[in-house]
Amino acid sequence: MLQGLTGWHLVIILFIILLLFGAPKLPGLARSLGQSMKILKKEVRNDEASDDSGEGSAEPVKSETGAAAPAVPAQTSAEDEVAKARAEAEAAKRELEELKAQQAAKAAERDES
């Protein structure tokens, strides 16, 4: 899939990203991407550690109250992060469309004057 990707392709892709999101939003996008990757790595490590320590025990762990702890898959938080990132991307797209509409309206007003 990425075998034919050369330096020029990367430059063009970065330029398109810059045009879509704008320079002021790129640090925020990179920060949120880094945080998402950090959370994903943390969850993978926790999942691997629980797999290593929990081999052979199929029973849920009981808390001090004696009730069984609910089994929550590690993917839930990763899926939440993905959903959150998609929602942020959709919000950014909507904001971009609104700004384009405002810019077009201002240009139309200038043309009428």
Biggest sheet descriptor: none
Secondary-structure element string? HHH
Mean pLDDT: 78
Number of helices: 3
> How much beta, percentage-wise?
under 5%
Helix content: over 70%
Count of beta strands: 0
Low-confidence stretches: none
Overall structural class, as computed from helix and strand content, comes to mainly alpha
- What is the global morphology? elongated
Distance between the termini: 51 Å
Overview of this structure, please?
- The chain is mainly α.
- It has a domain at 76-113.
- Helices cover 72% and strands 0% of the residues.
- The chain is built from three helices and no strands.
- It has helices spanning 7-21, 26-53, 75-112.
- α2 runs antiparallel to α3.
- It starts with 6 loop residues before the first helix and ends with a helix.
In terms of topology, how is this protein built?
Layout: H1 7-21, H2 26-53, H3 75-112
Helix pairs in contact: 2-3
Membrane topology: Single-pass membrane protein
Protein name: Sec-independent protein translocase protein TatA
GO molecular function: protein transmembrane transporter activity
Entry keywords:
113 residues
Short description:
Keywords: Cell membrane, Membrane, Protein transport, Translocation, Transmembrane, Transmembrane helix, Transport. The chain has helices at residues 7-21, 26-53, 75-112.
